[in-house]
Structures are given as C-alpha cells and as structure tokens.
Amino acid sequence: LAKTTQPISMDSYEGQEVNITCSHNNIATNDYITWYQQFPSQGPRFIIQGYKTKVTNEVASLFIPADRKSSTLSLPRVSLSDTAVYYCLVDTSGTYKYIFGTGTRLKVLA
Amino acid sequence: KAGVTQTPRYLIKTRGQQVTLSCSPISGHRSVSWYQQTPGQGLQFLFEYFSETQRNKGNFPGRFSGRQFSNSRSEMNVSTLELGDSALYLCASSEGLAGGLSEQFFGPGTRLTVL
Is the CB of A43 less than 8 angstroms away from the CB of B4? Predict the structure, then answer.
C-alpha cells in the first residue's frame, strides 16, 4: 500500500521557483502521480500528472526519478495567487485506489 | 461545460442520524469518486463509481455507502452518524479511463457537521 508524505509547509517569495517533493516509497509499477492545488473552501484542482521522468505543462513541471519513490512538483516564478495547499496523489492499481499525500501549505510572500 | 455540483453545500445533523449527499458530474463523465477531508486525516478516498458500478473502495466502514445512477449522478449515504464523520465531503468526476489517464474534476464539497 502506497504511503505518501509531503512537507507540511513552505514559504517562498514572488518570482521564485518552488519545488515541492512527495515521498511514495511503496509505489507500484503501474501507479501514476498527480498533483492538485486547493484553495480554501474549494475542491482540489488538477495541476499535472506523470508516470516517469519529466512532464511539463503551461503551469508546472513534474519530475519523477527512475526509482519512482518520490516526485517533485516545480512551480516556476510563483505569484501571490499560488498561495494554496498542494497535494500529491498516487493513482494506485492496488487497494484503496487513490491515496493523497499529507498536503503542503505554500505561502507566497511579496 | 458546467462543473461538478454538489448538494447540499452545508448540512448539520445529530449523532445517530443518517445523511445523503448528492453529486452531479460533468456531462459525459462516467466516473464519480468520493473523498472525505478532515484536518486530522487529510483527504481520504471513499469509493469510486463507474457506469453505475462500484469500481474501487477505500478503507471506510460499511456505514459509508454510495450509488450511481444511469445519468452518472451519484449519491453517498452515511448511516448512524458519529461525531468523527464531521468533514468536507468532496466529489470528483472524470472520464474514468484506465491507467491513471483521467483528470479528476472536483466539486466544491458538502460540509457536514455532526452534533
């Protein structure tokens, strides 16, 4: 059963790059990793998804090393509006299907 | 396209009662998943329905149940409510493709308070 852990919180300044890492030591071969952003009083919102190596879209990059025991969400040049909680999600083919990480509260400072 | 809608948005119940929450997915989506979010336990997967069948289930007691209708709308029911069931219940819809390719779209949630 995959267990996912993340740092509880991070602070950053506007314009900086932010990297948030998720550890998933027991990830299975066919499991995907997805990252979500959540603002207060809203449901999570999809950011990016990957399986291995590197994936990039218009808002973020996702790095997954060869052993797949962790993944790193990279947010380039954050702004104040990126202040939110970020969750990794392992889409597991095994028991209990979707396993969310503990969440990282990102605070972007001016 | 309209997003995922959940009703009601807020609910107050007392211990021992039962509650039914409703979720309308994005048009064309056949998968609906339910999650419980609490400050202590975070986001936890309850179950997933695809084409009216429960496809996956999380680690929750049998008091938590759900169903999906032919139009993909879903309901979840919690019987014999306990204080610990107080939480934000989130519904997410997706196309339901296999292999983790489906992006999940979340609704705003139903805030359940058990007194």
Answer: yes
